[in-house]
Design goal:
With 253 residues, this protein is mainly α. The protein is 75% helix and 0% strand.
Amino acid sequence: MNIIRLSAVAKREVQRFMRIPVQTILAPLISAALYILVFGIILGNRINFLENINYIDFVFPGILMMQLIFGSYSQSAFSLFFHRSTKTITEMLTSPLSYSEIVLGYIIGATARALIVSSGVYAIAIIFTDATPANIPFFIFYVLVVSVLFALLGLLIGLWAEKMEQLNMLQTFVLTPLIYVGGVFNSIDMLPENIHWLVKINPIFYMVDGIRYSMIGYSESNLLSGAFFLTGSAVILFALVIYLFKIGWKLRS
């Protein structure tokens, strides 16, 4: 691992999304602000929710998680797809860069975008709610592991996709539905009991629940199992992406 080579890849990825801040940073901030305003403030004031927990405080961790997921996934998926389309990935593969340096560079860039957007969302939320984390180590862990996990997932889709439309398929038909039924806007107890199992097999439920616990101290799942699951998933995806880069799957033509 060469720090200079790694930092060069990461710097390029950061510069890539910083060149179009309206699309990569401002648009997600506006979207999150609308979620906070409509679901947290306007509707939240009319919802009788959990005792001692305001609805806006319950909803905000999920909104923050949404921005982490979409920001990290979009950055790595679209960036790798672009480099494959323009054949610039071939130059990277023939350079002195190792596979781990390339993959980690993409991850750092995607994580940086997710953190910048989520920091802006956090700043907006301070105006409306008590956004002080109840457990800072847990908060840092979930923010980082989710960003890395979806950066890796984005790389997998960036490798697989042959058309631009395919990059949006996962986000539109998989991630968005899973997020909406993953406990972002409601407690699991608010759902019919016969579909609780559906929520509990949704991996995003454990991400939202974990970051919610880190912020307001409220949880509906086994946090230790969720943390191990997310960490294990990130390690497996990292190993898979490295392997696919080594064999040149859809990278060399």
